[in-house]
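Inputs:
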Amino acid sequence: MDHMQRTRQKPRYHAQRQTLGIIFIIPIVLFLLIFIVYPVLYNIILSFTDAKLLSRQFSWVGFKNYQKIFTNMRFPTYVKNTIVWTVASVAGQLLLGLSIALMINRKGSGTGLRSFLLIPYVVPAVAIALVTKWIMNGDYGIISWWFQNLGMMAHRQSPLAIPGSAMATLVIVNVWRSYPFPMLIYWAALKSIDKELYEAASVDGAGAIQSFFAITLPHLKDTTIVLIVLRIVWTATYFDLPWLITGGGPAGSTTHLPIMIYQASFGTFQTGYASGLSVLLGLSLFLCVVFYVRKTIASDTHK
Amino acid sequence: MKKLSVILMILIMMGTMVFAAGSKEETPAAAADEKIVIWTNLTADAQAKVLRKQFTEVAEEMGVEVEMVTISFNDMYTKLATAVESGNVPDIMHTNFAGTAYLYAQDIIIDMDDVINDIGKDDFIASYLHVLNAEGKTWGIPDWALHTSVWYRKDLFEKYNISIPKNWAEFKAAAQKLNIDQDGDGNIDIYGFAVPLNAVQVAPQTYYEFLYSAGVTTFDPKTGKYTFGSQKKKAVEVTEYIADLYRTVSPPSSIEWSWNEYRNALVEGTVAMTLDMGAVIGLAQNNNPDMVENLGCFDLPGQYGTKPASFGSGYAFVVSNRGSADKIATKKEFINRLYTSERAAERALSRPMFAFPSLYSALEIYRQAPTVALFQEQIATITDAFEHSNWYWYGMEHGLSQMSSQIEATTFFGEALQSVVLGMETPQKAVDYIDQMLQEQISIIE
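Outputs:
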């Protein structure tokens, strides 16, 4: 085939490859459109209606649902609960995950230990909730018994029955449940750090702590950004543990936005109102993530 | 050729996705008519087993096919809502009164007066029929019902010379006498009365027993008009009383106690009294058999003596209005056959203790069953209460009302009561909040 013939055939070849590529991505695009884009758009539309689970008819009400949300006296408390739950859980699981990743990254830690450390992540939320309620029971729970005997709690009292400690219990349980994920991600990231950097630092007289802050942490920055983004989104939308352990109590002290959405949908059957709440939650998370990532990139660029 | 086969494969995959997502199976009308789908919320083995046995027997008698689906109570509303939206409503539902109210509000069930008359209306306990009434018709057939009583330690009442209290002042005094420090260490080992306030369902059930005992209702039993708002002063008294009981005679952790916790507390002997519908006996038989003979029950007294009403619960069979006229007739016949005295008693006996059948004739068989032989005194106390006093499920004082499922599925009662007992809110504010939420729910229903 001469050069002229090959030149004529190139555009046709590219067009064919392009067509094939488009055909390959059609199924996933359809999937995304049907199962992600459409429900999200429909949810946004519903949030401007008076839709209820009890009725098939609904009408446009504009921003009435949003007005109702912001004038709900308990809404600021639930937002505060959501922030406390999310920030404390994410901080806890990242710190614990990193600590354990550093530990298992050393020589001598085998597959057995790493597998054992993954157990919390695979235990079903229902089982975790049941065991938590048992050990926290004011009459026979081991944790409550310790607190009562140390004089930190009244006789036959339970941490789940006191507003502040109920939230603390949920956070601790969630940190325990969730740390394996950051642990694995950090462990993989630690493996990619060049060992020669540590050797060079050691030759220069740097100790373990100095090496950690000067070498390890900077190399984990991108990993940490990704983890923070993912864990914030996942944690802020967790419904299972708070609902199963405390039901949002006592006195609404562990009620967060996902519980509020659940109550609005399946408690009072106000799907329009619930959609408004979920739009607000989704938007807040999106803005948080964008703000955080941009700030981090900006500080990198500035350096 | 290779390219063509790849394209063909992709098209087949996409086609499969489209058809899998939305294919509608054409069921031949005759086959659909011969099969009856029944949903029941009773998932415990003992109960599901009896239901399956009876459904199979009746299906064989009628020459139809039956499919029983158990759905946990916690999933009920979401599954019902989905079923209603998708049009896949089962033929028969076996659900609680609140579920019946929801189905009635969705206009997917039929009235059962003809079946009730066929079975024999006089054989039904009147208060059970009343709760399923709306617009002068009965929209389900009551299967069995539960009544709230105060379950107490007979041995401790005897030991401390306490009589059955006749009003709230005596009740609190009795509970205070039963705050017992067994080992003299300054800590109360047995509390007088458990006040469980878990926000998920338990708090409203506790609250409503006291509200009804004081004469407060959500709706007027005669007119159906909303009355809670005009009874707020009395509701505040009730709230103050419950808060007082919590602070003086109930374990501090009871604020988050659900059914398991307060029942276990009575059975294990760490509280002396608790409100319950009778499951404590079954629990005691399994976990602490020695405690069984020490347990008795009495009706929670009225605030000043005579008690206007009690809080109760129960299950009913309802029939959906889907299907041909022949199919509906088949479903009604199916239900009719389930209401022999023997079958009604068998279903009630498969429950934890003290689920009373809705037929008097079945009640006689129930009383003679060996499993309840030891509890004739308690059975007499409870049957006397629901035969001679008013008896309601929350929000259904005037009959079927969707309000009951709203109350059941939300946590605003629990949140309000917990706030009061923790000192975070005054009883007046809590009652105002409950009133506001109830009125909001009414506007949603209407």
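Remarks. The two ends of chain B are 64 Å apart (CA to CA). Residues 20-32 of chain B have pLDDT under 50 and may be disordered.
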